[in-house]
Amino acid sequence: MIKTIKFLDFCSGIGGGRIGLENLGMTCLGFSKIDKDAEKTYRDFFGKDER
């Protein structure tokens, strides 16, 4: 059985770190960002329904 590493994208910015981790086969469970402009960009990149 292959297990996938899951992560939370804290201090996510616009998601550059997430892209790198997903390219390594990891799965993002959610993100955290205070800056509303960066959050808008993040949601534009990864979907409006992101948690």
Instruction: Quickly count the helices.
Output: 2
| Cα distance spanning the termini | 28 Å
Helix amount: 25-40%
Tally of distinct domains: 1
Task: Give descriptors for this structure.
51 residues; 37% helix; alpha+beta
Write the layout of secondary structure elements.
Layout: E1 6-9, H1 16-23, E2 27-31, H2 36-46
Parallel strand pairs: 1-2
Structure characterization notes:
The chain is α+β, with helices and mostly antiparallel strands and 51 residues long. It has one domain (6-46). It contains two helices and two strands. The protein has helices at 16-23, 36-46; strands at 6-9, 27-31. It is elongated.
Short overview:
This protein has 51 residues and is an alpha+beta fold. The chain contains 2 helices and 2 strands, in the order βαβα.
